[in-house]
Specification:
11 helices, alpha/beta, about 20% strand, 6-stranded mixed sheet, Rossmann fold, 2 domains, 5-stranded parallel sheet, elongated
């Protein structure tokens, strides 16, 4: 599994955007994944930006005056269409066909940029910044990937926040947490397996919360045969998830906690994506790699805590 984070994307675009032509007058982003790289290019080049739908409907007309004024031209400079990635070229072909029907077709040069290219020959791709073969996963669509039906996903920390120590009392406070905790993310597709260290006795509350928030899944696997106290004393949260993941035909586990992600990957001998530091843990990672990845996650967490304390 090849993984790229937002941080990877931003730094790559910053390094590579100088390779783009100088005559760009308008940046068009393909919703939704193309928004971030397109906005970055538009801001650095001081160019107007619109969505593909806005451009196709003629909403970019208002941008032409600013383009003419800035470049001293006639407003017919190059249009750069930006997407995050291209695979087999099917989506690109559809975009190209739509652009061919635009009133400006043939009047303004149009180029297409995909930040990440799969390596498969694609007609109509003018620029790409990095070749990332399949299978691949990006931070911005990790929970919306079409392969979600073959993923394992944790609940606390991924779909909702983790309970605080006070809430995790195995009593009334925990019951309130299970009932009322806020949603963090809503996956687009059905999840293959939800695997959680929540106890089996909390299955009704968990299923109710998932149903209320429209989260679809094929199977919910909870920890059985132990008490909350025994689970805390054992401290082997990654063990249960790793053993379960190992015995399933799943290709990825999405976990929120770095140390658990490391343990799950080692036990299951399969990759684990950690949403705390947006790093991919692999069973072949050496200890130095693991410690460096965990250190980055801890620094990010400490930075966020400091900003909250300072009110920033």
């Amino acid at each position: 599994m090849n993984f790229r984070s937002y941080n990877d994307l931003i730094h790559l675009v910053r390094r590579k955007m100088s390779s783009l032509p100088d005559d760009i007058d308008l940046v068009v982003h393909v919703p939704r994944s193309g928004i971030i790289p397109a906005a970055q290019i538009a801001l650095h080049r001081n160019l107007p930006i619109v969505s593909l739908d806005e451009y196709l409907s003629g909403a970019d007309d208002a941008t032409r005056f600013s383009a003419r004024k800035r470049r001293g031209g006639d407003g017919t400079g190059r249009v750069l269409v930006v997407d995050d990635s291209v695979g087999d070229g099917g989506a690109l072909a559809r975009v190209r066909a739509a652009l061919a029907a635009h009133p400006d077709a043939g009047k303004r040069p149009v180029s297409f940029l995909a930040v990440y290219w799969s390596g498969v020959p694609v007609e109509g791709l003018d620029y790409w910044f990095e070749k990332v073969p399949r299978p691949r996963l990006f931070e911005w669509n990790a929970l919306h990937h079409e392969g979600m039906s073959n993923f394992c996903v944790d609940i606390d920390g991924v779909l909702c926040r983790d309970p605080t120590r006070a809430e995790n009392d195995d009593g009334d406070c925990y019951a309130a947490f299970l009932r009322d905790t806020d949603l963090i993310a809503t996956p687009t597709h059905e999840i293959g397996w939800l695997i959680s260290n929540r106890l089996e006795k909390y299955r009704p509350q968990t299923e109710d919360w998932l149903a209320r928030h429209g989260i679809r899944y094929r199977e919910l696997i909870l920890l059985d045969g132990v008490s909350a106290e025994t689970r805390r004393k054992a401290g082997a949260h990654g063990w249960f998830k790793g053993r379960t993941y190992r015995d399933l035909p799943a290709e990825l586990f999405i976990e929120s906690e770095p140390f658990q992600a490391r343990d799950i990957a080692q036990i299951a001998v399969k990759p684990v994506l950690c949403t705390e530091n947006w790093s991919l843990y692999r069973p072949d990672m050496n200890r130095l790699d693991q410690h460096a990845t965990q250190a980055r996650g801890l620094l990010r967490r400490a930075g966020r805590a400091l900003r909250r304390k300072l009110g920033g």
